[in-house]
Design brief:
Elements: E1 3-7, H1 11-23, E2 27-31, H2 34-43, E3 48-52, H3 60-69, E4 76-80, H4 85-93, E5 98-101, H5 106-120, E6 139-141, E7 144-147, E8 152-155, E9 158-160, H6 164-175, E10 181-182, H7 183-190, H8 201-215, E11 222-225, E12 229-232
Parallel strand pairs: 1-2, 1-3, 3-4, 4-5
Antiparallel strand pairs: 6-7, 7-8, 8-9, 10-12, 11-12
Helix pairs in contact: 2-3, 6-8
Amino acid sequence: MPRVLIADDDRAIRESLARALELEGYDTVAVADGVEALTRSRRDAFDALVVDVMMPGVDGLAVCRVLRAEGDRTPVLMLTARVETPDRVAGLDAGADDYLSKPFELDELLARLRALLRRAAPVVATSGPDGSGRTDAALRIASLRVDPAARRVWWGDGELQLSKTEFDLLELMVRNEGIVLDHTTIYHRIWGYDFGSDSKNLAVYIGYLRRKLAAAGAPNLIHTVRGVGYAVRQP
C-alpha cells in the first residue's frame, strides 16, 4: 500500500483528498503546513508527497527545497493555484517532480501520482553475464558515461549530480543517440503522460541538463530540433 503525505492548509481540500486516496488504496497522512510536512517526512517514510505551494510560514517550495538539500528524493507532486510559467518553473527549480494546477480533476491527480510512483519504483535486477547483478551496461558518448544500474553519470572523471527526472531524461536520450525524440514521446516515457502543448516542463529539465553538462566541461551534446523535440549527438 503506497504511503502518501498530503500537505495543504485548506482543510476541505486536505481531508477530501485524503479520503479519495484512501478509497484508491493509499495509506495517507494529512498535515496543514510546511513545518509539519518536514517533521513528518523526516520521521516517517513516504512513497510520495502531495504538497500545496501556498501555505503560511514554510510554503511548499521551501518544503521541497529543504528535502532535496537533505538528499530526500521522495517524489513530490506540487499543487498550485498559480498557472503562470514562472510559477511552474519555480516549482521545478525547487525540486518538484510534477505540478498540478488548482482546481484539478481527481482522476488527473491520481494518474499523475501513479506515474510518479512507477518512476520511483526500484528496479529489481537479475544477474547479468558477469554475475554482478547488473543487466544494463554503461552507456557512453564521447567522455560521457551513464550507468543505468547505479543511476550515476560522469563526464570524464567528474560525476554529475542529477535528480531522478534529470537522470531518466538523459538516459532516455543517450540510449537513443542520434534519434530525434519528439516532445510527446519524451513526456510519455519520462512522466507517463503528456502535459500538453503549452507545457514548459521538458524545456526546463533540458536546460538543467545542459547547464550541468557544461559545468562539467562537456561540449553541446543535447540538440534542439525546433517544433519536434531533442536529440543527443556525438560532439
